[in-house]
Each structure stands twice: as C-alpha cells, then as structure tokens.
Amino acid sequence: MPERNRLLRKLTDDDLDALFPALEAVTLEKGQALLVPHRKIQYVYFPLDCACSVLAKTDNANPIEVGMFGCEGMSCLAIRPDDRPFFTSNVFLPGTALRISAERFASLRSQLPSLSEMVLRYREFSAVQFGFTAHAIGGFTIEARLARWLLMALDRVDDQKQFPVVHDLIASLLSVRRSGVTVALHSIEGTGAIKSTRGLVLVRDRKKLLEIAGDCYGPSERAYEAIMGNQPDQRQKNAKVWVEC
Amino acid sequence: MYVKVPIEFLAEQIHGHGLIVQQSREANLPKFFLHPVLGGHRIPDPEGAEFQTLEDATVEALAAAHEITGDALRAGKGLVAVAFEIADEAGNILAMIPFNTVLGLG
Predict the structure, then answer these.
(1) Which residue does chain A place closest to B76, by CA atoms?
(2) CA–CA distance from A13 to each of A2, A9, A102, A170, A237 (Å)?
(3) Under 8 Å CB-to-CB from B92, ≥6 apart: which residues?
(4) Which of A44, A140, A240, B58 is least surrounded by CB atoms within 10 angstroms?
(5) Phi and psi (nearest 5°) for A23?
C-alpha cells in the first residue's frame, strides 16, 4: 500500500482510534510551505507519499537543507501549542498527507501516551538526522551528498523510482551551484546508478548509489530504526487509515 | 483594473494560508545554458537558467567552475580542468570560459 506513514503505524490501536477522526487527508503541492519561521503553526502534517525539506534560512545567505521528512515522520517538532518554528519546511515532491490542526494535536498528544512517545522519539531522530546532514555537508563531495539526497528522497517515495526534480532545486537544497549538480548527476549517471533527463531523475541501481554515497548515507537511517523501532508495529490494525483516506 | 499590491504583503498572505510561495521573477529573461567542460569532455546542461545578461551567466559559470574545482581538490582528486561553454536556447555558443580563466591565469 503506497499510502502510509511509519510514525502513525507505531501508535497503539486505542491511540490511533482517538487520533484518526481528527486527521484530514490533503494534497500537498510542490513548493508548498508547511512551516515558516517565527509564524504560528497551523497544522501538523504526516506525509503519506510526499517528501519535504527542512531548510535553514537567513536573510543574507543561501538557504541549505538540514533535514528531510516524508512517510517516516511528521512536519512539526514543536512541543507546546505556542511554539514557533525556526526552520522552513517546504514540499519538494508533491503528494498526499494527513493533517491535524496544531491546537487539536497539542491537546490529543497530552492524552495519548503512544503518540506522545513517538513524537518525542521522532524529535530525537530529527536531531540525529540534522547532525548527520552537517556531517555530509562538511566532509563529502557534491557527488556523495547528491547520492545521499537521492537515496533519502527514494526512501520517502519508494514505490516510485523517479523524481520530477530540476537541477536548480537540488542545487538550492544542497546549497551548491546548479552546474555542480549537472556535473555530479552526469558522473553518477556514468556508473549506471541513475538516468537523468531534463526535469527527471530515474534511479536504476540503488546499490550503486549507496556506494557513491558511502558513509554519507546510512547513519541517520539506522538511527531511525534504533530510535523508532522498539514499538510494536501496528500495520495490520492501522491498515484502515490508508483505506479510509 | 489592477490594484498594485506589494510582493511582501502577498507573500505574507500566502504563507499564512500555507499556499505555494514562488519567488518573484522578472518576465522574459533570456535563458542561458552553461555546459561544463571537464578535462575536455563537454557535459550538457539540459535545463539552462535565466540571467539578465550574458555577463551575469559568465559570472555564474566562473563561480561554478571554482566550486567544482574546489570540490575535486578537497576530495583529493587533484586538479580537474574545468571550463565552460555558454550557449543560448537555439544552441549557439556565446562564450567559452577556458580553464586558464577559471584559474585566474588570464
């Protein structure tokens, strides 16, 4: 079933039953801003088959992607209802998500222990992911970082093998020049790992991408399993979520 | 009839409603294609980008050449000869930025 959210799948049956009526299925468009720094959070999103960037932005410097989320998690890391985000979150691969108003989420979270637990765990995972993004930016080539980025995007839309992305978008997320992406994509394509055409990247060989990314990809993905994984998988019970929306 | 609205105001409205935010962009800027040439091998730029002038495109190509060179050097790949070919939408080559220029050797 392509429509799924791994975080929601970790909730207990009772908690999901309580949360489910408050969730609304929405379509997220490319470029849509889910969180804007210092602005009130209106909705909390649980992506099903879209992928979003977390960007560090300042007034006078180029933004850079510090994290990515999709079907493995959620949009909002704020704890208190009045918390304001410091990062920007934008959709880069459009698709569907379940959303809940931030107020409703805050009140439900305090009543639903497994939701509260999973949100806390996801926060911890996000800190790890942001840290390993710094590790990637500081210690790896554009090519390795691009391979990591493609693998991360692939993890979030895994029934598709191709992304409608232009070089300009990838360049702005990695905070490199567009031509750097052109060169790196060309080089990765030379290994047979991907096929890159205008506005589209097709992943042909994930193993080769893993080789190119090296240690740049993997640590935060293993951390996800370690941090989020110790909860019974509620897939069977939760299957109704995907059917009903 | 049109009402002139400041772009910041529009952005604020759009942010507030979680709608799509797009960079304002001047209409009908010419598109330039920056084809990197690495060690004599030309890599096609399939998408191109908009610039006000050829000079702006040249500045971008030079900055990109520096970045690509720096990335290769940092990775221990040695000095890669990076040059650029700048073309228009019809494919006409408008400028060549040779490796020496990238290195600042004239």
Answers:
(1) A141
(2) 21, 9, 22, 39, 7
(3) none
(4) A240
(5) -90, 140
Give the nearest partner residue to B36 out of A42, A179, A197, using CB atoms.
A179
Q: Is A175 left (phi over 0), alpha (psi -120 to 50) or beta?
A: left
Predicted pLDDT at A50: 92
Query: In chain B, which residues have their Cβ closer than 8 Å to the Cβ of A176?
Result: 67
Residues of A in contact with B20 (CB under 8 A): 29-33
Among A245, A231, A243, smallest CA distance to A113 is for: A231
Q: Residue B76 — φ and ψ, nearest 5°?
A: 80, 20
- Answer for the pair A28, A92: CB distance below 8 angstroms, yes or no: no
Q: Tens digits of per-residue pLDDT, A19-35?
A: 999 999 999 999 999 99
How far apart are the C-alpha atoms of A172 and A15, rounded to whole Å? 39
Which residues of B are less than 8 Å from A42 in CB distance? Answer: 18
Selecting from A32, A33, A178 the residue whose C-beta is nearest the C-beta of B49 gives A178
Q: Which residues of chain A have pLDDT under 70?
A: 1-3, 158-159, 230-245
**Per-residue DSSP letters for A110-172?**
HH-HHHHHHHHHHHHHHHHHHHHHHHHHHHS-HHHHHHHHHHHHHHHSTT--EE---HHHHHH
pLDDT of res. A77: 77
Which residues in A lie closer than 8 A to residue B15 (C-beta atoms)? 33, 36, 39
> How wide is the angle at C-alpha A116 spanned by C-alphas A43 and A122, nearest 5°?
75
With an 8 Å Cβ cutoff, are B43 and A180 in contact? Answer: no
Q: Is A218 helix (H, G, I), strand (E, B) or coil?
A: coil
- Does an H or E element contain B102, and which? helix B99-102
Instruction: Say what the pTM is.
Output: 0.86
